[in-house]
Amino acid sequence: MFNLMSNCCSWVSKLQQPLRKITVLVVGLDKAGKTSCVRGMLRVPPGDVGPTHGCVRTELRVENYLINLLDMGGAPEVRGSWREHYGEAHGIIFVVDSSDRQRMKEVREALVDLLKHPRVAGKPLLV
Ligand SMILES: Nc1nc2c(ncn2[C@@H]2O[C@H](COP(=O)(O)OP(=O)(O)OP(=O)(O)O)[C@@H](O)[C@H]2O)c(=O)[nH]1
Ligand SMILES: [Mg+2]
After folding, report:
1. Which end of the chain offers a freer environment for a tag, N or C, measured as fewer CB atoms within 10 Å?
2. Looking at ligand 1, which residue's alpha carbon is closest to its atom 11?
């Protein structure tokens, strides 16, 4: 009985908490699986996804968080545009296709480039 009351109180207090908005940037090489990961998080069936152009924004609600997911294109010629969003990102997901061993050097270069940016320093990073 005490547990039930305690669970109810914590549930009610969670409901009363204000919605917290955060922004998560999703980057990585082209065809790494960024859009597929985002679709997985949104519980959308995988399907056939083409290359992402620019920045695709979607919202995901997790408990009291409203997460603004920024899915970026990963082609070499558009990677420069990632940095336009480093400032607004609270955290970064760097997607790697670990089965694509031939591109590990390119992955390393893109990750090193990302990490040395001052607006990325100190922010949570999930690889
Ligand atoms: N076998 C397999 N295929 C996957 C997986 N994840 C993604 N794919 C396929 O790989 C291809 C590229 O996936 P995307 O999610 O579009 O990759 P992306 O990183 O968003 O690529 P860009 O938008 O071009 O930067 C698609 O054809 C997906 O269906 C996976 O876990 N396993
Ligand atoms: Mg994509």
Report:
1. N
2. 31
Question: What number does the ligand 1 atom closest to the CA of 73 have?
Answer: 25
29 vs 90: CA distance, rounded Å: 21
54 CB less than 6 Å from ligand 1? no
Structural class in CATH, domain 18-126 = alpha beta
Place of tokens 């082609």: 75
From CA 63, how far away is CA 101, in angstroms rounded? 37
Using one digit for the tens of pLDDT, what is the confidence trace for 56-80? 999 999 999 999 999 999 999 999 9
- For the chain, the domains span 18-126
Q: How far is the CA of 77 from the centre of ligand 1 (A)?
A: 18
- Tokens 């009610």 correspond to what residue? 12
**pLDDT value for 24:** 98
The span from the CA of 123 to the CA of 127, in Å, is 13
